[in-house]
Amino acid sequence: MCVWFRNSFTTLALLLAVVPAGAQVCREDAIVATTGEQQFQEIAPGELHHARAKLIWQRCALGQTWNATANSCTGSPAYVSWPEALQRAAALRSADASRLWRLPNIKELGSIVEYQCAEPFIDLSLFPSTPVAKFWSSTYMHSGIAFIHVMDFQNGASVLGLGIADGRAYVRLVRDDEE
Fold first, then answer.
1. N or C: which end of the chain has fewer CB within 10 A?
2. Coil, helix or strand for 129?
3. What is d(CA 64, CA 47) in angstroms, rounded to the nearest whole number?
4. Is the Cβ–Cβ distance between 169 and 80 less than 8 Å?
5. Residue 20, exposed/middle/buried by CB under 10 A (0-12, 13-18, 19+)?
């Protein structure tokens, strides 16, 4: 087994061993941040500019609303099929042509994974109320059956395998910062 893999696996195992059920734990003392708050700047209520990725993210999952007073997301996130996620993004684009929201590709979604934290693997100060679950990307593979890449914020891993017909996941929308 290669040293990098063994060390990464050991670090991940140590991190997960100390995570109480239902509570996020971030290990600033043991793991270097992979996203870092300095990479993000709020440019509008509920929107973060991600300087490194040159993207603008919605802070809340689709179905939730940004509450600036409480600095949190309210409401229930939408747990939807991939076609419904695409349709909802298109509806938001139609409603406001100045904000061209879309599903992120799997690399873009991976840019907000925070390996310093677990349950979920995301910085909750930036993206509060993120479900510990899978989120749709726009990346797919088609070989007879279409499989969609999802980012699983339970373990911080990209997963290929949710089918269009039966899969459901959450959605976080993004747009390019050059609009």
1. N
2. coil
3. 13
4. yes
5. exposed
- Block residue for tokens 């747990």: 79
Q: How far is CA 27 from CA 2, 5, 9, 116, 178, in A?
A: 24, 19, 15, 5, 34
Q: How far is CA 100 from CA 21, 32, 88, 123, 129, in A?
A: 37, 33, 12, 24, 23
Q: Which residues contact 52 (CB under 8 A, 6 or more apart)?
A: 39, 111
Residue 69 has pLDDT above 50, yes or no: yes
pLDDT for 140 beyond 50:
yes
Task: Name, in order, each residue with C-beta under 8 angstroms of 170's C-beta and a sequence gap of 6 or more.
Answer: 61, 62, 77, 78, 79, 80, 131, 133, 134, 135, 136
> Which bin fits 95, alpha (ψ -120 to 50), beta or left (φ > 0)?
alpha
- pLDDT of 67 strictly over 60: yes
User: What are the residues facing 152 on neighbouring strands?
Assistant: 134, 157
